């Protein structure tokens, strides 16, 4: 990767030399009121009947983040949970969860195919290659298909600049993290290119057994065939390896003894994504594009979350697993946009085809559990034996995804915009399950619909309302995972979850925005009510095993809000947050007659803080024009650790400080993360038994990040 960085620098110097006398620099205009993700085309905010936020290039650049969650969490209503080393879960109109209720896009294309969701997919994102991030909250399955339920995050990559530009930087912290990053590009004649690479390394950090490395490179080439036709190529390749330290027990957490219970767990990933897009403008009112793409992902792990231990049943033993999940994708998506004079109508329609062969295997490992005094928690685990003879899953499958969608917007009367959209998805899985030696297919299909309206009575305010549907089919790793009560038992055929159904959601919301004091004070809000059915739940059986069922019902309701105020060029302030309630409606958790609790009806979902938010105060002093400073406040309210609502975690308030100074072409910057050195955890969870102990996913102590970046852009005087 370091060779790639050096090559980028050399390329930039060649480009500079070739273009020094003829290239002019253009300003980058951040059109904060224009969005792409919500309608698949560039659309004004006042014509978009959804809750959507945009993180601009300026915000991304000034954050100087080590991990993507530091940027994404600046969005009102969003809590991206740091699981360490760029691993993560998410909470958008849902509790903190790893469920397949979020869609992650890169330039409008899903990072994963339907049916192979991975909550850690964003660790493949190159933070040094981002132009902006758009976040749509709530279901948009009518445009993007399954898994676009709680929210959709679109990472929009940097495009080739008209002028040669190059930036190179290094940053690191005092806990052993360091990163080299470089990006450059230009337009020469009809061809533009942009290349961005990062190489990250963590060694000997504050948490034991938490090293990781990540190398990413993104390459984009634009060929402007004519003024109306463009050919665009995008390629991303990344390698990732991380220790998986897991959580710590309550005593170690309070003592700030950040030791890992396992020194053998890991996650490794190799990812390739490439696509070729042909765009054509037929006339000022009509445009089309066709994209062909390919993905190649290899993921292997010995996950810390896969360790199973009970303080009641054989407390000195435990089990884990080693698994491998590999897939390729070959697909195409085409879209046409047509505008009509009649009622200012716009039609967006498209179709998608995706073929993704996948292979997956998982087998058990036997562990010894060395207990702490009292026997209620584990000091550390030791690997006793790998058991490839005891398979948890072993299958190959061909996944065929086909979809067609259309969205229509029009102005029936002045200042009112109506939007209607629908999409049909069909996922067919042809499988070969080695464990029960079965060959067959499963089909998950659904039509999803949305309807919305915008009303903009004044230049300074607007309102919207919408109804939208969402759905998420079960991940195929859940379908083909052997049931614990039979899987791996000698002489007894394994049983599987062939009967799981897609989860479905209905969402109702209203919202709006206001702008005062000549756009210096802005306020936006959204109120939503969403119900989910057939959600995956774990049911405790008479023999104490756990069974998966798609039968749960939940309710999610809340308000999201954002305020920004810029009284002068020196001061800028934003405040954003959400108040939400996530409740079990019909959620059976036990078939065991001796269990006092059979269902969770009416209880709050665990890991679901009612209040969360992120605010920031920026200061750009006139007395030192090249200096920037900001202080950020992240708030996460209290939430239940368990499903039965007996124990709460108090949540946390943490402050971060950022500063940077531009001197000629160099930028020197520093961040202080967790400014007050607060002891807190990103997540705390526990099982439902009275003897269950909490697992703390500890956050880092006060962290000092320092960096320097060289920014070059050629300007013709």
From TrEMBL:
Q: Which Pfam families does UniProt cross-reference here?
A: Plug (PF07715), TonB_dep_Rec_b-barrel (PF00593)
Q: Where is the TonB-dependent receptor plug domain?
A: 46-152
Chief location of this protein within or outside the cell: membrane
For this protein, the record's PROSITE patterns field holds: TONB_DEPENDENT_REC_3
Q: Where is the TonB-dependent receptor-like beta-barrel domain?
A: 217-675
Q: Give the matching SUPFAM superfamilies.
A: Porins
User: Which residues are the signal sequence here?
Assistant: 1-17
InterPro entries (alphabetical): Beta-barrel_TonB (IPR000531), Beta-barrel_TonB_sf (IPR036942), Plug_dom (IPR012910), Plug_dom_sf (IPR037066), TonB-dep_rcpt-like (IPR039426)
- Keyword Transmembrane belongs to the record: yes
Give the domain of life.
Bacteria
Q: Where are the membrane-spanning stretches?
A: none
Q: How does it sit in the membrane?
A: Multi-pass membrane protein
Q: Which UniProt keywords apply?
A: Cell outer membrane, Ion transport, Iron, Iron transport, Membrane, Receptor, Signal, TonB box, Transmembrane, Transmembrane beta strand, Transport
Where is the protein found, in the record's own terms? Cell outer membrane
* Entry's family note: Belongs to the TonB-dependent receptor family.
The protein's matches in PANTHER family, at most eight in alphabetical order, are given as: FERRICHROME IRON RECEPTOR-RELATED, TONB-DEPENDENT OUTER MEMBRANE RECEPTOR
Q: What is the protein named?
A: TonB-dependent receptor
Species in which this protein is naturally found: Flavobacterium magnesitis
């Amino acid at each position: 990767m370091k060779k790639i960085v050096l090559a980028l620098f050399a390329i930039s110097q060649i480009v500079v030399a070739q273009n020094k006398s003829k290239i002019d620099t253009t300003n980058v205009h951040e059109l904060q009121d224009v969005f792409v993700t919500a309608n698949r085309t560039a659309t004004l905010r006042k014509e978009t009947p959804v809750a959507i936020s945009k993180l601009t290039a300026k915000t991304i650049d000034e954050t100087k983040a080590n991990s993507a969650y530091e940027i994404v969490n600046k969005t009102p209503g969003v809590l991206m949970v740091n699981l360490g080393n760029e691993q993560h879960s998410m909470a958008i109109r849902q509790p903190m969860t790893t469920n397949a209720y979020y869609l992650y896009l890169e330039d409008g294309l899903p990072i994963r195919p339907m049916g192979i969701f991975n909550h850690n997919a964003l660790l493949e994102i190159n933070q040094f290659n981002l132009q902006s991030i758009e976040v749509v909250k709530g279901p948009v399955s009518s445009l993007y298909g399954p898994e676009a339920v709680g929210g959709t995050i679109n990472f929009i990559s940097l495009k080739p600049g008209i002028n040669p530009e190059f930036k190179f930087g290094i940053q690191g912290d005092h806990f052993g993290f360091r990163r080299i990053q470089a990006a450059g590009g230009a337009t020469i004649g009809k061809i533009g290119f942009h290349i961005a690479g990062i190489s990250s390394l963590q060694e000997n950090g504050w948490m034991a057994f938490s090293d990781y490395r990540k190398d990413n490179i993104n390459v984009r080439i634009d060929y402007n065939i004519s003024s109306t036709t463009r050919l665009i190529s995008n390629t991303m390749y990344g390698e990732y390896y991380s220790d998986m330290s897991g959580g710590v027990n309550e005593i170690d957490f309070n003592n700030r003894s950040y030791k890992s219970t396992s020194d053998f767990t890991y996650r490794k990933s190799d990812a390739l994504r490439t696509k070729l897009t042909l765009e054509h403008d037929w006339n000022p009112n009509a445009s089309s594009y066709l994209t062909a793409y390919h993905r190649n992902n290899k993921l292997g792990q010995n996950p810390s979350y896969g360790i199973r231990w009970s303080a009641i049943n054989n407390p000195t033993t435990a089990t884990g697993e080693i698994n491998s999940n590999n897939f390729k994708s070959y697909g195409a998506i085409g879209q046409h946009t047509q505008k009509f004079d009649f009622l200012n109508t716009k039609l967006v329609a498209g179709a998608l085809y995706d073929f993704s062969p996948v292979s997956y295997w998982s087998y058990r490992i036997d562990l010894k559990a060395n207990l702490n005094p009292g026997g209620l928690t584990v000091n550390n685990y030791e690997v006793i034996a790998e058991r490839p003879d005891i398979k948890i899953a072993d299958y190959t499958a061909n996944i065929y995804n086909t979809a067609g969608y259309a969205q229509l917007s029009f102005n029936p009367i002045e200042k009112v915009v109506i939007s209607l959209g629908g999409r049909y998805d069909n996922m067919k899985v042809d499988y070969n399950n080695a464990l029960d030696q079965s060959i067959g297919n499963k089909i998950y299909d659904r039509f999803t619909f949305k309807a919305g309206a915008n009303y903009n009575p004044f230049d300074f305010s607007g309102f919207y309302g919408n109804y939208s549907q969402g759905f998420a089919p079960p991940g195929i790793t859940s379908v083909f995972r052997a049931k614990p009560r039979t899987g791996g038992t000698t002489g007894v055929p394994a049983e599987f979850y062939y009967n799981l159904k897609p989860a479905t959601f209905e969402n109702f919301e209203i919202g709006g925005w206001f702008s005062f004091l000549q756009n210096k004070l802005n306020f936006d809000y959204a109120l939503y009510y969403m119900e989910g059915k057939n959600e995956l739940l774990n049911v405790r059986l008479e023999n104490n095993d756990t069974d998966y069922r798609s039968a749960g019902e939940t309710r999610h309701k809340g308000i999201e809000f954002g305020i920004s105020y810029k009284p002068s060029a020196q001061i800028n302030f934003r405040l954003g947050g959400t108040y939400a309630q996530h409740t079990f409606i019909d959620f059976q958790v036990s078939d065991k007659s001796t269990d006092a609790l059979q269902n969770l009806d009416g209880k709050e979902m665990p890991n679901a803080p009612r209040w969360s938010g992120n605010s920031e105060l920026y200061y750009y002093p006139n007395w030192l024009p090249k200096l920037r400073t900001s202080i950020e406040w992240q708030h996460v309210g209290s939430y239940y650790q368990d499903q039965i609502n007996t124990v709460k975690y108090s949540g946390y308030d943490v402050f971060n400080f950022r500063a940077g100074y531009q001197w000629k072409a160099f930028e020197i910057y520093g961040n202080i993360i967790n400014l007050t050195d607060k002891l807190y955890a990103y997540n705390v969870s526990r099982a439902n038994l009275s003897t269950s102990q909490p697992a703390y996913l500890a956050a880092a102590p006060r962290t000092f990040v320092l960096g320097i970046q060289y920014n070059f852009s050629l300007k013709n005087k």
